[in-house]
Write a structure and sequence with these properties.
With about 150 residues, the protein is mostly helical. It has helices at about 15-25, 45-70, 80-90, 95, 105-115, 120-130, 145-150; strands at about 5-10, 30-35, 140. Helices cover about 50% and strands about 10% of the residues. Strand 1, helix 1 (about 15-25) and strand 2 (about 30-35) form a beta-alpha-beta unit.
């Protein structure tokens, strides 16, 4: 049986949080790296539409999460959860889209700093840079997009 394969985009693809979550879970998986948005579309208007959508989502997510976050260190309480893994994937888009200053959201800024120090997050950053970091041992390598598509059921 084939391992689960996560297709992730670079630079700053939305699957970053999924890489973090997979590392935290420690279950075997593979990765398939694609260039975003080039491997998805070649039309400049479509690329810009994807960028605009991402920028709107970043602003909306930060405003909603800051309002919902209580006085706990993690999004859902006193322990990190998969919600925190996915948050770091969204939060780092502030650099890519340059749409807000995270320091305007102090609870989320603190969460971001805690997550940036996490070994799984550092692993995901290294993967995006094309490095081969030492992780939890769950990553079983990369496959090409053509191979990932070939494995899809007919």
């Amino acid at each position: 049986m084939a391992l689960p394969t996560l297709v992730y985009g670079v630079p700053s693809g939305c699957s970053f949080g999924s890489i973090v979550a997979l590392e935290w879970l420690g279950q075997p998986y593979q990765l398939c790296r694609i260039a975003m948005p080039e491997d998805v579309t070649t039309a400049e208007p479509e690329k810009q539409a994807l960028r605009n959508l991402g920028a709107r989502k970043v602003v909306s997510a930060h405003a909603n999460l800051e309002a919902l976050m209580g006085d706990t260190p993690w999004l859902l309480g006193n322990h990190r959860t998969l919600a925190d893994a996915y948050f770091i994937g969204i939060a780092r888009w502030t650099r890519y889209h340059e749409v807000l200053d995270r320091r305007d959201y102090p609870k989320l800024q603190g969460l971001f700093e805690r997550l940036e120090a996490d070994v799984g997050v550092r692993f995901a950053h290294s993967i995006e840079k094309g490095e081969t970091p030492q992780g939890s041992g769950a990553l079983q390598g990369h496959i090409r997009l053509a191979e990932a598509l070939r494995r899809l059921p007919a």
